[in-house]
Amino acid sequence: MSWSVTVLLLAIQLVSVSDEIAIGRHAHAEVRRQTPQLADVAVNHYVARIGHQLAIHAPGPRYPYSFSVANYREINAFALPGGPVWVNRGALASARNESQFAAVLAHEIAHVALRHSARQLSNMMIANLGLNFLGALLGNSGGANAAGVAARFVASGAFLQFSRDDEREADRVGAGILGRAGWDPHGTIEVMQIIREQERRDPTSVDVFFSNHPAPQERIARLSQTLPRIRKGRRNSIEFQSIRARLGTLPPASSMVAKTR
Ligand SMILES: [Zn+2]
Fold first, then answer.
1. What is the 139 CA–ligand 1 centroid distance (Å)?
2. Residue 83, in any domain of the structure
3. pLDDT-based confidence at 109, cuts 50/70/90?
4. Which one from 98, 108, 167, 190 is the annotated catalytic residue?
5. Theoretical Cys-Cys bridge with 82: which of 21, 55, 86, 119, CB 3.0 to 4.6 Å?
6. Domain of 208?
7. Residue from 178, 179, 209, 180 nearest 192 by CA
8. Does residue 34 come out as left (phi exceeding 0), alpha (psi in the -120 to 50 range) or beta?
């Protein structure tokens, strides 16, 4: 085993759950400063309610999950260390039933629950900051250092880039969370089919998604092998339909692509 692999494995064990939560709280504040949040109480409450119903069924530590809606038209979602989940308005608008939208949230919850961010944090600290910094952070968990690490973490964009293995694991565990929470886990496959269709119709609306996730074809093939053939669970709700209709009455969403170019 190489020196760097050994250090990395050690670092994952050393970034505690409370470190992660402290860093995630600061990262969330940073993202909020940079992101237009959807200003609609009904939609935000709905998204948070679905998110918390799913999070109850997440494995791993009891993280303080939260759910925020970015007022962007593109289909995308991401998770910050220790609980904050962000989903774009475009993901809600593109879903055709509730199980598809819940599948997006369940995938992000799985990234948090599986501590994929702890690995990213370790990578980042080792690559950019060196072990002195890691030591300083760990000696001061929850203190001022967490804010510094969080700012660098958000600036690096690391939270948008998980490894392919982490993505596969989040797909599998996310579908499990979705099923245990009472939705049809096939919503996971359906939402990837929607992303494929959208790619043909309007490639810019899924650009961001494709830059940080494996191709949907591969994910669909893998999930089709693991999900039970017989479908069961909730697929839709009247509330989902009315929330989606409500989105259509709000001022249009902004574009992430226009902002980053
Ligand atoms: Zn992912």
1. 30
2. yes
3. very high
4. 108
5. 21
6. 3-230+237-247
7. 209
8. alpha
Q: Ligand 1 centre and the CA of 167: distance in Å? A: 5
Q: Which two tokens stand for residue 15?
A: 């970034």
Do 77 and 91 meet the contact criterion of CB atoms below 8 Å apart? yes
Residue 19 lies in a domain: yes
Cα separations in angstroms, 119 against 33, 161, 182, 197, 257: 25, 11, 30, 33, 28
Catalytic residue flag (residue 108): yes
- For the beta carbon of residue 161, count every other beta carbon within 10 angstroms: 15
The helix (run of H) or strand (run of E) holding residue 86 is strand 84-88
Helix, strand or coil, per DSSP, at residue 143: coil
Across the chain, mean pLDDT equals 87
Domains held by the chain: number? 1
Q: Which tokens belong to 65? A: 């999950």
142: left (phi over 0), alpha (psi -120 to 50) or beta: left
The reported pTM is: 0.89
CA of 152 to the centre of ligand 1 (A): 20
Is 253 within a domain?
no
pLDDT at 261: 42
pLDDT digits (tens, 9 = 90+) for 27-75: 999 999 999 999 999 999 999 999 999 999 999 999 999 999 999 999 9
Is residue 254 situated within a structural domain?
no
The CA distances from residue 87 to 6, 152, 251, in Å, are 35, 21, 18
CA-nearest of 97, 89, 85 to 73 is: 89
| C-alpha of residue 169 to centroid of ligand 1, in Å | 9
